[in-house]
Amino acid sequence: MDENMKTVFVLDHTPYFGISGEDPFFLDLKGGKISLKKSLWTSSVESSIEYCRIIWDLFPTGKLIRFVISDKAAHIVNTWDIHTQNLNHILNAMAMVGAPRNSQQTSDYTVIHGLKTAIEALAEPADFQKEKREGGVSNRGRVICITSARDNPSMNSLEKIFRQVLIQQNSISGKNDDLLPIDFCHLVIINLYPSTMESLVTSRPPQDVSTNLRSEIHSNPSGKLPKVLMSLILEHYNLASTTVTGIPMKEEQNSSSSANYDVEIFHEAKSHSVFFGSEVVLPRSVKEGFEYETVTLKWCTPRAGAAEMQHCLAQNRITPVDVTSRPSSCLINFLLSGRSVLLEMPRKSGGKITSHLLSAHGGEIFIHSLNTSRSVLEDSPSISEGVGGKIVNYRIPDFVQTTLAQRLVPLKMKYPDENLGKVRAKIAKMTKYWPLTFNSTVVYSIRQYVEPLLVLTAKEDLTEEEILQCQQCIYQLVGIETRHELTLNSQRIKGKKDDQYRLMWNELEVIVGLNGKSAGHKAVLQCIRKVRTQAPDANEKEVDSALGGLRKMLDLGETSSVTSSSMLRSSTDSPMSPPAIERHKGLKHRATLTLFDIMIGKEQAIANKRIDFSGRLATPPGQVATLYPHLVAKETQSDIKT
């Protein structure tokens, strides 16, 4: 069980949330446009309700969400019972609660009441937990608190109180058979304030407060709250965004003319990740005004029976992001009428790939990921040439290195499955994008040029020096592309080199984006996106100046062995060469060292050690040691005697 199974929203209902968010919107009336402003309370309710709508559209069962209102006391809006898990129940309850009272803010009004009740709610077993309770069940959940704090110390105090209450509740649950201890809780605090004000609370990425508590802070004005929750919902439930572009639609005022519109939909990320490792690189871009990426797919004129003639790899429910817009409504009604829509990837080369299909089944709309590569009905691939196989250029050296990197040794542990779980997660991350053949990848076909980038971004986090090394590798690729020194031998796109370079940058962006979500990975990803937009117009002098600046920052005399060895390999290795292998000084490969080799190596190391010159050891620093001082002393004594 993950923390997505149980979520509790805690909404601040103190008098402060009755003030205006200072974010105006306009309504068209007969007399003209009028300007209105929502209160902080209205913004928090609307955004959290939209969060629930998206989740319950995509997951009709299994994802439970509760609401708690906090002012002078905590007010429970709904329970874990399935009959209260719907928008009508929550909207009716919110209408009964009403807006915050216009009274003086006192110490009795606090969001702490709601946080305590949220922890108690997580300790209550849901129906699916009651059924599995005899065999042991995990209890994990998430608390999303929308409130307002003065400064960072106030926010830290709120986290500290939440942690103490969590510890107390677990001790109570351990003694009560009707409650469940909370194994893990994810606390998300959103600090909300009017758009015309500045907050002293700073945002903070997720961090582990204890073994069973992780917290993060988002500080945003009221106008950005919907965007923040949209970004969080993709992260929390592993969702993805797809923008259907080029939808032909008749104008509302003039039915004789038509225009093209765009509609954004949310769905499970599996609809995109199923293509990782194939020759398809989906066109991704950061949505304007948001922090998440969206895949842009072009509307294709529907054909009769299109849904029955396609090989499907995965299917997932969809929901429109802007459910009240006219383009979204028209698209949904079109699909519910029994029609299907094919989606294709727009390509500059003129060709097209039909990658997805939108179709309705039983009153629900699904996005189908279509098979774009070889069919399972074709000849099975073979490692070596022979009868029954056509694919022979597998990435066997890379596969060997990937396998060797996951070796485990026997180890006695309290929880034997702990390391296995970590390795499974590591392998899952490494193989999200792993092309099987050299013909289906551009980046891994020119690995000698991008080795530092691939090695460093595979880490969980990047240091400042490693970020600079990755940026240097990126600018070197731009320089090579500008000078036309690189010959891409990939067969993914036959024709123009510009299309192959475009695929190379797309593939690099996918690899770095999947390797990690740390600040260092985001900086490298931002650098790739920046040079992609400037690469066609960049000249050699600009690239050389950028590389010169990076070299000064790196101080190339002390760069890491990863960079130096990769630069050496770039001039000697072929595209099929395996990754560089670290070797022992003067001995065999580390993986083949025997006990005899180790003992000989130690003896050689001891023999190579020499005692430093005694005169240098006895001479103070900065002075020159005198050779044979005893001879000078003897000559002086003999002169005195004579």
Automatic annotation (TrEMBL):
Family listed: Belongs to the Integrator subunit 13 family.
Name this polypeptide is given: Protein asunder
One Pfam family matching this protein: Mat89Bb
Location in or out of the cell: Cytoplasm, Perinuclear region; Nucleus
Keyword rRNA processing part of the UniProt annotation: no
Coiled coil is among the record's keywords: yes
UniProt keyword terms in alphabetical order: Cell cycle, Cell division, Coiled coil, Cytoplasm, Developmental protein, Differentiation, Meiosis, Mitosis, Nucleus, Spermatogenesis
Bias (Low complexity): 560-575
Region Disordered, residue ranges: 560-581
Quaternary structure note: Belongs to the multiprotein complex Integrator, at least composed of IntS1, IntS2, IntS3, IntS4, omd/IntS5, IntS6, defl/IntS7, IntS8, IntS9, IntS10, IntS11, IntS12, asun/IntS13, IntS14 and IntS15. The core complex associates with protein phosphatase 2A subunits mts/PP2A and Pp2A-29B, to form the Integrator-PP2A (INTAC) complex.
GO biological process: cell differentiation; cell division; centrosome localization; meiotic cell cycle; regulation of mitotic cell cycle; spermatogenesis
GO cellular component: integrator complex; perinuclear region of cytoplasm
Coiled coil: none
